[in-house]
Every structure is written in structure tokens, then in C-alpha cells.
Amino acid sequence: MTPPDILALERATLSTVPAPRIAFDGPFVVRAYAGGTGRANAASSLDPSPDPDLAARIARIEGFYAALGVPPRFRSTPLDPPGLAEALAARGYVEKDETVILLAPIATLAAPDLAAQAHPEPDADWMAVTATAEHQSPARRREKEGTPALLMVPGAWITLREAGQPAAVISAVAAGPIAGFFDLAVRPEHRRKGLAARAVRAAAHWAAGLGAEWMFCQVAKANIASIALNTGLGMTEAYRYRYLVRAADAVPSLKFG
């Protein structure tokens, strides 16, 4: 089975991580939400061909974000047009939060879990566990609460319970043959019990039931524990992306315990 290519995975990201504001400018898709997760609050290219209008396009995209009163952010992937990084560096942009996209055939991950409860939206228990993750911010949590209303494809918010108490959570979205999982979190007192791996397998089981054939996740390079978990489950690197932001905007980097 041939794995999806980078463009297919980038398109899946647009479906699985929605944003209420979206525009296209040439090969770039420009998105904005509440300023939380970078994926829904950045511009990125879907075509690596040379772009003769790149300089004017960058300025125009900066104007889109300025109109919203938020700092511009570019998500740099292997689909960038030539010269994007250099053009942004000349405008005072710096790199932050390199992210690894991991991918696996969903059949190698999926396993049912009787302790896993799937809901069509995040409930109070799910949100409470998510809030224990060090990298979560109020803006990111607001976006999670608003995601179900924006999705055009099926999503699930899954909670694993231990002794009746919510112990681990994950979300999953199935965009046809490609599914993604996000928001994996385990309460501090329940860590190192294998719950994270069980949550991933439960999410894959849910998505496989909808016909998904591949599952991806996007993990910050700095999140060493999550990368180790997912590669230990058999997921392999497909590609990487990084954010380019203006140094003057002082956009904070993600922190992981």
C-alpha cells in the first residue's frame, strides 16, 4: 500500500485541523483562528513551483493578518516555493517549533479498548485532562472547544478512564483514507502506565471503523517523549515543517515537560 504523499497529508491537515477564517492567495492557503495552534493560524504553500509574485504575496498575506490584529505566521513545508525562507528572513522572520509528521498504516495501530469512550465533541472531563498538558494555552483550549462546529469530516474526542476517573484523552479526525490524531494527554498521576499508547490505538480503531487506511500525527521536535511513543508504535517520519515568525513579535515556543 503506497503511503500518501506530502500534498495529500497537507490537504488532510486542512480538513482535520479546521479554521473559521481561510483564504487562498496563489499557491498559499492562509488561515486564522484564535491564535492558539500554529496549524490553524498560519499561511502555507501547497505548490513548490517557483512563484514570481512571492514578494508581493508575502506582503499581502502580512496585510491579511494585520487586519485581524494578529502576528503573521508562515508554516514552512517541503511544498514551499523556492526562496520563501530567504525572503522571510530578509523581513525579520526567525524559525521556531520544528515539527515532525509521523505516519503509519492504520491497521498496524488500531486496537479496541473497553475503557475508551468516544464523544462527538470534547466534554468537561476531556477538557480537564487536556488542560494538564504543559503546552496548552487558553487560546488553544478555546480552539479545541470550537473545532466540532467547524469540521466537515468525522471527529471523535476519546477519554480513557482508570477506576472510573478520566485519565487520558486524545482526539481523532478521519478525512477519507487519511486520519490524524491530536491532543494526546495523560494526567500526571497516570503517566508511565501505557495509557498514551492505548489512547493512540483506540483513536486508530475509531478511524479504521470509518475506512481510514493511514494515520498521521504532528509532533513538535522538542516533544521527545511523544516522538519516542509514536515511533515505538511503528510510526515513521514522513516530513517536517517549521514556523517562521517575525522576531519582533516574540511568539513563544511550545514547552513540554
Automatic annotation (TrEMBL):
Residues 101-257 form the N-acetyltransferase domain. Pfam families: Rv0428c_C (PF24553). InterPro entries: Acyl_CoA_acyltransferase, GNAT_dom, Rv0428c-like_C. One of its GO terms (molecular function) is acyltransferase activity, transferring groups other than amino-acyl groups. This is GNAT family N-acetyltransferase.
